Amino acid sequence: MHGPVTAGWLLVALCAAAGGYCLLRMRSSVDEQRGSAGGEALMGFGMAAMAVPGAVLAPPRWMWLAYAVVFGGAALHTLVSARGRPHRPHRLRHHLHHLLGTLAMVYMAVAMAATSSGTAGASGAHSGMSGTMTGMSVAGGIPLLTGALLIYYAGYVLGAGARLLPGPATAGPTGGGGAALAWGDRPELGLACRLTMGLAMLAMLLTL
């Protein structure tokens, strides 16, 4: 029983750390780092809250609905901001990835709200990774949609991990040669945070 609880708290810690670093990126002098940091911080802290082990906290149904509203609003904001300005292809891909992430959070919150009323009495008896997302029934969610999201995030995690592998030395992303970058400006740390949240999303989707 300690394994799932430990895994849940590890997931909470990783997501909270990623969210905290995204807050630091909001003060970056690099526009590309600063532009999406707020939305990613919300994702990180939201996933940390949803990953609290079920043995510690069993949120009521209205809380899952509140999660759905918050991330639905974040999805709408991402969509509006993406349409309101031209983007280079990689920035557009990033906006689409963030939009999919917020919609996935809405999907998981709605699935948990739909099952929480029927599983409230049994949530304390859940074991395995189902304890990571409080009160989740293994029958929650739409299998085809869950499977498609799992495939997407598995591919994203593999791609992000490959981009973090050491490669040939190149000039810094800001064109400053070998000048040291501030912690909030380092693109590899931003990518590492997105990789962490991708792994967390995979773990959460597996509980549906």
Describe this structure in words.
Helix content is 66%, strand content 0%. Mean pLDDT is 77; it is low at 118-139 and 169-178. The chain has a domain at 2-58 and 115-165 and 181-205. Helix 1 (2-25) packs antiparallel against helix 7 and helix 4 packs antiparallel against helix 5 (89-119). It contains seven helices and no strands. With 208 residues, the chain is mainly α. It has helices at residues 2-25, 31-35, 37-50, 61-83, 89-119, 143-164, 187-205.
Key words describing this protein structure:
208 residues, mainly alpha, single chain, 0% strand
The number of helices is 7
Backbone CA Rg: 18 Å
Which shape, going by the Cα principal axes?
A: globular
Summing up helix and strand content along with how strands pair, one would put the structural category as mainly alpha
Low-confidence spans: 118-139, 169-178
> Distance between termini?
20 Å
Largest sheet: none
Q: What is the residue-averaged pLDDT?
A: 77
Helix-strand topology string: HHHHHHH
Strand content: under 5%
Let me know the number of strands: 0
Helix content: 55-70%
